[in-house]
Fold these 3 entries.
Entry 1:
Amino acid sequence: PGDQEAGELGLAAVPGRQAAFRQALEAAVHYARAVGCPRIHVMAGRVPLGTERAAVAGEMETTFIENLRYTADLLSQEDMIGLLEPINNRITDPRYYLNTPQHAAAILEKVGRPNLKLQLDLFHCQIMDGNLSRNLETYLPLIGHIQIAQVPGRHEPDSPGELNFPYLFELLESLGYSGYVGCEYAPKGDTLEGLGWLQSYWQSRGLQHGGTSKAAK
């Protein structure tokens, strides 16, 4: 994430911070290797203070692409995948550079490396674009990780909000998505109690704790 006390939230697209980015990436790889994690979120970063997004967009894209190619080369040696996550600039972070799956897909196409993927957080995607069914269908080949949270509160999937998660989970299954779904939300109360939604979802699908079929027993 860079120097968060100085207002940074990632470095990959920030001009002039290439050396710091590479140092941070090497540290991330070290930790990922130690814990056996094959995916690293490569954070784009924020539009620098005092500058207009449109004025620096070209320079930031050039920096981003250069850093992502470096990332892909490094991660290929470790059999790891780099992930790009669009973060909404309407609620969460007005200055974040990468905001939509369309933008991320365009960057990935320009970089052209198979070990870089899209990290699609449905919370951010709903706020920026909606159209989740079509977006999941469109970008599935690029997706390396999915994250969830209810909109707008960013709480558990069964909390009041805009998203119908049982439908979305079944859609992911029907599309053949076999990766992880990360629960990146703020629990409304106790974390373990808040996971009751998952138990209820498994039961609604005829599954036991852990997602195993009752029929298998």
Entry 2:
Amino acid sequence: PADAVPRRRSAMCRGLSLLLATVALLAATARAEEEVKIEVLHLPESCSPKSKKGDLLNAHYDGFLASNGSKFYCSRTQNDGHPKWFVLGVGQVIKGLDIAMMNMCPGEKRKVIIPPSLAYGQQGYAQGKIPPNATLIFEIELYAVNQGPRSVEAFHRIDKDSDKKLSELEISQYLKEEFARDGKKRHPSVHDEILADIFKKNDHDGDGFISAKEYNVYQHDEL
């Protein structure tokens, strides 16, 4: 019939539209599965400063497997029970925690669900007793938000001799000042561990200094 071709084209268009709708739905579902789900358990009346990328955070957190609720990590049983110190947003913790702890204030508590793609993925983490493709749950309590060794202002403060590179002595002194500012007692090993971790992750050429380029994860023009 004369209208057979238009009918076939119409059917093809409907089929293509259905296919595109299905693809869009699958993509939306995949994105939803890859999101970090955050539940605020406690929010203090005073919420300042809020955490941002580059801040030095002090927090306790417990980790559980979503599949069976078993606990695989507890910061209170590590390092003599001292809260963990780490720089937010630079890969010192799994990506899901970097996301989950953004815009958090001192004293806040959160429960977060992290999908495998933002945790340990298909490989898992045998040493930490985390199986492949594991969804993780963390209960987090944030104690302190300090300006970490990632901001332009901090770089200039640390760089006492203004030579555009940071020595181990300069960063060590900076950490001591930050620790003294919040007044919490810590084992000396905490300072040494953070200092070693900063150089391990940032002194890419191994020359014993962190240059402005190595330090400057935000690509600021000021440096």
Entry 3:
Amino acid sequence: ATGGGRMRYGHFEMVRLGIGRKLDVNRMFALWRIDAPWQPVTKKGQGQRMGGGKGAIDHYVTPIKAGRVIVEIGGNCEFSEVKPMLEMVAHKLPFKAEVVSQEIMEKKAEKELREERDNLNPYTFKYVVQNNMGGCQNWISPYDRKWFGKHQ
């Protein structure tokens, strides 16, 4: 996942069926790297007036953060034969996602470290937040205080 979002039961079924139809079960296997839907989402009925408390549970979702691996495919297979099936699934997800291999993830991590190391500006977002420059602690979110704008 390159962007955050929420996966409902239907999204899980779409991924399961999309991969299951094209997966050669004699050579490959798929691993879910996220939990089943567990977070309740409430909704009030249409046409009801304001007030009256919280609505009833409508459905359950799984929150997904950016940078999370959704499904992993392994076994006796090459990345080139698995990529089209995963791209088809990635386009249907309710958030932005991309297909990656271990090599691609290592290159991205290496690039991020190189950019951080070669940065000439001493005032990074992390430095600004940790030193409360401009009173930023008053207006940034707790999420940014923890991750410094990395995973959005």
